[in-house]
Amino acid sequence: MSEIERDRLEVDILIVGGGPAGLACALRLAQLRAQPGSPIADASIVVIEKGAHIGAHAISGAVLDPRAMIELLGSFPPEGCPIEAPVGADQVRFLTKSGSLRLPLLPPMLRNHGNHVVSLNRLTIWMAQKVEEAGIDLFPGFGGRELLFEEDRVVGVRCGDKGVDKNGERKGNFEPGVDILSKVVILAEGSRGSLTKDLVRRLRLDEGRNPQIYATGVKEVWQVPEGRFPAGEVLHTMGWPLSREEYGGGFVYGMRENMVAAGFVVALDYRNPWTDAHGLMQDWKRHPSVRGILEGGSLLTYGAKTIPEGGYFSIPRTAVDGCIIVGDAGGYLNAARLKGIHLGMKTGMIAAETAAECVTAGDTSRAALAVYESRVDESWVGEELRSVRNFRQGFAGGLVRGLLHTGLVLATKGRGMGERLEVKPDHTHMLRLEELRRRGRPTTPPAREIDGALTFDKLTDVYSSGTKHEEDQPSHLLIADTEICNTRCKVEFGNPCQYFCPAAVYEMVASEDGRGTRLQVNFTNCVHCKTCDIADPYEIITWVPPEGGGGPSYTHL
Ligand code: SF4
Q1: Which atom of ligand 1 is nearest to the CA of 306?
Q2: Which one of 2, 26, 243, 296 has the largest count of C-beta atoms within 10 Å of its C-beta?
Q3: Ligand 1 midpoint to CA 308 (Å)
Q4: How far, in Å, from the CA of 532 to the mean position of ligand 1?
Q5: Measured between alpha carbons, how far is residue 317 from residues 39, 314, 327, 361, 387 in Å?
Q6: Can you point out the beta strands (E) in 160-289?
Q7: Mind listing the pLDDT tens digit for each residue in 98-136?
Q8: Does the pLDDT value for residue 1 go beyond 70?
Q9: Of all protein residues, whose CA lies closest to atom 1 belonging to ligand 1?
Q10: Is the predicted pLDDT of residue 90 greater than 70, yes or no?
Q11: Alpha-carbon distance 215 to 269, whole Å?
Q12: What atom in ligand 1 is closest to the CA of residue 477?
């Protein structure tokens, strides 16, 4: 393609991502801008969001700790805020294949008294209305394709082009992506944000830190018979169908109007190449403790996302020249409490205050913006994350050791068995088929029972997610070398992308010469969870934003 002439937009503060962290940041900026005599009264503030509308890509459990919302809006729930219900009955069960044991005492981090069941999707739609009422420009359908730099200083974001065909040629409706230049860019892209990933690598922001480690969470919202599972009721499960070497579990949260949120999470530091979060959730739903809640109901919607679980020691440097990273993108999530929304919002608010001061002072260098990092660390965000700083690492040795270590973490206010327990990147843990054979473990994927009533295949669930992408565009899943998929990976790992992707994007099909199989990438199914970008053992898959507006269209999630 010849050199493209692009529109340029110059703003003071650009927020990339319309999730809870980005919207809390925008709302706090709106409040600061509206103060009498505000030095940022004339500041231009813009939020871009890759989803077709705000909330389209928002998914979480979710049980919300309202602390950040109270600080931001003065009370909770503020008028009109769509919460499902305050948390009522709250239990944790340990599942065996057919039985279950209720834990007699709730671990302190899983006590949810005072918290609220919410749909993040609905909450962000409501927050976006507040942001717009406050006069801040929101641009849904605009994905940030790359960061713009002057040397190592971030100076803006290039949005993705629209109207490019699958061969990379311009179509009749071609629109070049606009360059948005900004004094400060705030990255609120969510888990494994593609711009954040590039920035962390380019400036080595994770040097001296633990690598970020992730889980994949899949979730379905169901309509169930009346009275089956009251709004506000919370159930967490450990154990089956996970083995003792895997970390994760299930949840069921009661919503309004006889809906329930049911989800399953599995950490991506697993060894078994057949691990499949979606498939595990289907197995889990057949357990009597879950079946009894869902049976006779109907599936409403489905989604998936990754969750940054590394905690305090996996947070990279989050302020650089011209840029701040907030929320899940920065790894601000408490895996012990299964919560990140409140931390994302609070980091967004602190970023807003810091950016406003730095723009006013005319200095948005790393030296000036670094006050964001120290403020986060000194705030309740830092305090909360330090109090469980070695929690997740304790599960690297399996469930039993992890649970014992958790007791120590609680007793030592986060320290556990060391100053900083280390972890290895998720993609390094997967066992080769040869090793499975040597250990006498299955070398083929497990068969699963799918009945179309309680359990579903991936395509049915993807249909329920409302996912749509323009088909005639280049795939947004960049595979560095498909020969590795067709040859080495097939022999060494059995093409695990077919299992870890919760949306049936990766498929091994018969090759044209009839001699073997080749990888087919059904990118239009992609629900933007980013699992493939993390879990691929060869690190040859890169997720980039597709044409703006593509992806899931979540409701109730
Ligand atoms: Fe998730 Fe990757 Fe599958 Fe898309 S292709 S749904 S990002 S694993």
Answers
A1: 1
A2: 26
A3: 16
A4: 6
A5: 28, 10, 13, 22, 20
A6: 162-164, 170-175, 179-187, 214-223, 234-239, 248-254, 259-267
A7: 999 999 999 899 999 999 999 999 999 999 999 999 999
A8: no
A9: 529
A10: yes
A11: 8
A12: 5
Around ligand 1, the residues with Cβ closer than 6 Å are: 477, 501-503, 505, 526-532, 543
Sign of CA dihedral 46, 48, 53, 57: negative
User: What gap in Å lies between CA 465 and CA 481, rounded to an integer?
Assistant: 30
Which tokens hold the place of 246? 């895997």
Measured in residues, the chain has a length of 557
Ligand 1 pocket test: pick from 464, 519, 528 the residue with the most ligand atoms within 8 Å of its Cβ: 528
Identify whether the C-beta of residue 120 lies closer than 8 Å to the C-beta of residue 69: no
Q: Which pLDDT score, from 0 to 100, does residue 3 have?
A: 77
Structure tokens at 157: 């974001």
Single pTM value for the model: 0.97
User: 223 Cβ partners below 8 Å, 6+ apart?
Assistant: 257, 258, 259, 297, 298, 300
Nearest to 520 by CA among 529, 531, 530, 511: 511
In the chain, what are the helix, strand and coil shares in percent, each to the nearest 5?
30, 25, 45
Ligand 1 centroid distance, CA of 503 (Å): 6
Query: The tokens 């996996």 sit on which residue?
Result: 314
Q: Which atom of ligand 1 is nearest to the CA of 521?
A: 5
pLDDT in tens, 247-305: 999 999 999 999 999 999 999 999 999 999 999 999 999 999 999 999 999 999 999 99
- What's the rounded Cα separation, in Å, for the pair 530 and 517? 24
Question: What pairing do the DSSP bridges indicate for beta strands 8-16 and 179-187?
Answer: parallel
Averaged pLDDT for residues 455-474 = 98
Residue with tokens 């406050």: 134
